[in-house]
Design brief:
CATH topology of the largest domain: Immunoglobulin-like
Number of strands: 12
Distance between the termini: 28 Å
Radius of gyration: 27 Å
CATH architecture of the largest domain: Sandwich
CATH superfamily of the largest domain: Cupredoxins -  blue copper proteins
Strand content: 15-25%
Number of domains: 3
Bound molecules: heme C, copper (II) ion
Largest sheet: 5 strands, mixed
Order of helices and strands: HHEEEEEEEEEEHHEEHHH
Strand order of the largest sheet: 3-2-1-5-8
CATH class of the largest domain: Mainly Beta
Helix content: 25-40%
Structural class: alpha+beta
Shape: elongated
């Protein structure tokens, strides 16, 4: 997550500015410290017999030490303004390819909902984009103030309830870029991560098409039983699985229609494997205390059935 390893144009400009500021600050530091050392060593009591000649009101000297810092600050201001405008635009970057509008990222305590309104899909903690294309992102929050930050791609943007802030993402090379909530938002703030997956355009389109598909009705008997358990124990009050045209469910937690395809669970808390999935469902409060998902005290059979169901949601 280093902003000094930029993978997109906005982050590259931010890194450039960082080096310019660091470089100028280093020059100032070296000059000031050298003069200080010179004064300390040259004018030690042992080496000067009488008090050195004092000066007062040296106009040229005063002009220099007013002008030089002003000049340095002016250069920094110019670089900063240039970076700000580069990072802010394109004001309305192209919407995600194949989707009719901007990606929406909604902060929740403590996970990220990701919607592609044009494609009518909702996923969690994983944003997919096509390499080389600027993608507009609208961010908002349902509860407290969060901050959306993918250091290798873009600067931070505040995620504020009741308000939509706009930013954009662009990756110049394929890869998976980790992001993190950057504004303390409660107990599990540190476990509120996300991934941006940048793929070549055709792979991105394939992903989007895949996400638009409803979940495939399970054929395995245990997974079929899982569908029943999902409704009976109440997962359905918070989670949606889209089965064809039906499949309404809650929206308090992530949409699970394609949960098996995601790389992580619970906003980067766990890698997504059958083992961690079992651990999460059995005891989310042990893994992410305070999370909005309660322990449902499932028995072994119900847990196995749910696992069979969820692992099949690809
Ligand atoms: C009261 C609401 C609620 C109930 C009931 C609930 N969940 Fe959750 N669930 C959540 C929330 C909120 C999250 C996100 C937690 C986080 O990351 O902080 C979540 C996360 C998950 C995840 C991880 C998804 C991801 O992409 O990270 C899975 C899988 C999951 N729940 C499955 C279930 C199952 C199975 C049940 C029923 C046994 C269930 N949930 C019951 C609210 C709920
Ligand atoms: Cu947060």
């Amino acid at each position: 997550m280093s902003p000094l390893l930029p993978a997109g144009p906005a982050a590259a400009r931010i890194a450039d500015l960082t080096y310019v500021i660091f470089g100028l600050a280093a020059v100032v530091f070296i000059v000031v410290e050298s003069l200080l050392l010179f004064a300390v060593l040259r004018f030690r009591r042992a080496q000067v017999s009488s008090e050195p000649k004092q000066i007062y009101g040296n106009a040229p000297l005063e002009a220099v030490w007013t002008a030089v810092p002003a000049l340095i600050l002016a250069v920094l201001l110019a670089f900063t303004l240039r970076t700000m405008s580069a990072v802010a635009g394109p004001a309305r970057a192209a919407p995600a390819q194949g989707a009719a509008d901007a990606i929406q990222v909604i902060g929740h305590q403590w996970w990220w909902e990701v919607r592609y309104p044009g494609a009518q899909i909702s996923t969690a903690n994983e944003i997919h984009i096509a390499v080389g294309q600027p993608v507009h992102v609208d961010v908002s929050s349902t509860d407290v103030i969060h901050s959306f930050w993918v250091p290798q791609l873009q600067g931070k943007i505040d995620v504020i309830p009741g308000r939509i802030n706009a930013t954009w993402l662009q990756a110049d090379r394929p890869g998976v870029y980790r992001g993190q909530c950057a504004e303390f938002c409660g107990d599990q703030h540190a476990r509120m991560a996300l991934l941006v997956v940048a793929d070549p355009a055709d792979q991105f389109s394939a992903w989007l098409e895949d996400q638009q598909q409803p979940a495939a009705p399970p054929t395995d008997p245990q997974a079929q039983q899982g569908v029943q358990v999902f409704a009976r124990v109440g997962c359905i009050t918070c989670h949606t699985i889209r089965w064809g045209s039906t499949g309404a469910g809650g929206t308090r937690g992530p949409d699970l229609t394609h949960v098996g395809n995601r790389r992580t669970l619970a906003a980067g808390t766990l890698p997504n494997t059958p083992g961690t999935m079992a651990g999460w469902i059995a005891n989310p409060q042990a893994l992410k205390p305070g999370s909005d998902m309660p322990n449902l005290n499932l028995n072994g059979d119900d847990l196995q059935a749910l696992l069979a169901l969820l692992e099949g949601l690809r």
